[in-house]
Amino acid sequence: MTTRVVRNIGELTTNDPAIGDESSLGRLLDAAMVVDDERVLWIGPNANAPDADEAFDAKNGAVIPGFVDSHTHLVFAGERSDEFEARMAGVHYDGGGIGRTVGATRAASRDELRQGTKKRIAELFAGGVTTVEIKSGYELTTEGEARELEIAQEFTDEVTWLGAHVVPPEFKNNREGYVELLCSTMLDSCAPLAKWADVFCDRGAFSVEEAREVLERSRAEGLLLRLHANQLAHSGAVALAVELDAASVDHCTFLEDSDIDLLSASATVATLLPGAEFSTRSEYPSARRLLDAGVTVALATDCNPGSSYVTSMAFVMALAVREMFMSIDEALFAATKGGALALRRNDVGHLGIGARADFAILDAPRAAHLVYRPGGNVVRDAYRSSKS
Ligand code: NIG
Ligand code: FE
Q1: Is residue 318 domain-shared with residue 231, that is, in the same domain?
Q2: Does 27 lie in the same domain as 100?
Q3: Which residue minimizes the CA distance to atom 6 of ligand 1?
Q4: 118 and 43 fall within a common domain
Q5: Is the pLDDT of residue 266 over 70?
Q6: Ligand 1: which residue has its CA nearest to atom 5?
């Protein structure tokens, strides 16, 4: 296996408190790192860097763990910029446009869907993402959802079945029939293709009772759980996520104190998606209330054509800092280690010894430039471990 030494790292963020300044960011200045094709082997002062088969010069740039984008809807066809334009003129987002993407996605060929997904993945990776979760949810038929999951599998192991995104038009007057389909034929076909099950549990989508049924059946088929909750209104979805030990509850735009108490006593991560609030001109979630209560927070893009056509984790961090009052370090941690925890992964999101060799080298001396210079791409190179 080839070893590589990265020298002249101006600021290295490891997210391993055992390294460097002993903060949760585990930071080391004037550092070097040795990796092989799969893992981090050595971290220390630049002056002590050992030799390796190959050498890279970080040119005093910062190095960070690769971003873990734990929430995306990348497999879709079409676009909805007209809805975005209308929202900027005052129209309210209610998820009603999801059906338009379902129509466009059903009409697209497998190869069109694959090419669109590949293009969006390339944008994410160019911005420093090294782990990505991808959901289905834009076909809402047994064959279509399976097709979306198969395409997602070509790009990641973190594949999520979101058959319970909304009730499709052909079941408009028979939602019980759709929940029954979800819990039987569709689940049987999709469970072998996915790692996770997700439900959009919100106003206009699925109720807490319906979500519970889908999630409990999914768990019985071996899927791990996550939940879209409280994007459009307050509901009991956070309590449901905690009760079912979901790895993550996502959006959390509307939260009551009781939700925060439940989350802080749980292993469920609160994943915030400020690209959605930006793109729907909605109120941002209260990251400070969550962080101050000790809740683990993740940041993700929610990349989708309706509520958040965003492929830049740096932009998401900038929103988190500017609009949600997270510190830059809190945002960086949430976009890396937080995302890993939201996927229950301990091999990514950090650069401790033995972690996967997934990292980004910045064209900037400090990671703060990710937020300080919004709109550009300060990621010079992103490296992904060859181990899948
Ligand atoms: O996470 N909220 C539900 N699903 C997506 C939006 C889907 C769409 O508008 O197409 C979200 O924001
Ligand atoms: Fe989403």
Answers
A1: yes
A2: no
A3: 307
A4: no
A5: yes
A6: 307
Give the range of the structural domain holding residue 242, as residue numbers without chain letter.
67-342
Q: Which ligand is nearest to the CA of 300?
A: 2
Are residues 260 and 201 part of one domain? yes
- The rounded Å distance from CA 120 to ligand 2 centre is 15
On the CB side of 355, CA atoms within 13 Å amount to: 26
CB-CB contact of 30 with 45 (8 Å)? yes
Residue 359 shares a structural domain with residue 325:
no
* Residue with CA closest to ligand 1 atom 9: 306
Q: How far is the CA of 153 from the centre of ligand 2 (A)?
A: 18
Whether 53 and 174 map to the same domain: the answer is no
Rounded mean pLDDT, 104-116: 98
Q: Give, using CA atoms, the residue closest to atom 1 of ligand 1.
A: 302
Assess contact for 66 and 358: CB atoms under 8 A. Answer: yes
Q: Which atom of ligand 1 is nearest to the CA of 202?
A: 2
For residue range 160-208, list pLDDT tens digits in order.
999 999 999 999 999 999 999 999 999 999 999 999 999 999 999 999 9
Tokens of residue 117, six digits: 């997904």
The atom number, within ligand 1, closest to the CA of 162 reads 4
Question: What is the number of structural domains in the chain?
Answer: 2
Q: How far apart are CA 279 and CA 367, in angstroms?
A: 25
**Cβ count within 10 A of residue 380:** 16
pLDDT higher than 60, residue 127: yes
Pocket of ligand 1 (CB under 6 A): 73, 95, 97-98, 101, 200, 228, 231, 276, 302, 304-308
Q: What is the pLDDT of residues 278-323, one digit of tens each?
A: 999 999 999 999 999 999 999 999 999 999 999 999 999 999 999 9
Q: What is the DSSP letter of 334?
A: I
* Confidence at residue 388, expressed as pLDDT on a 0 to 100 scale: 56
Residue whose pair of structure tokens reads 């959006």 in the numeric block: 251
CA 277 to ligand 2 center in whole angstroms: 12
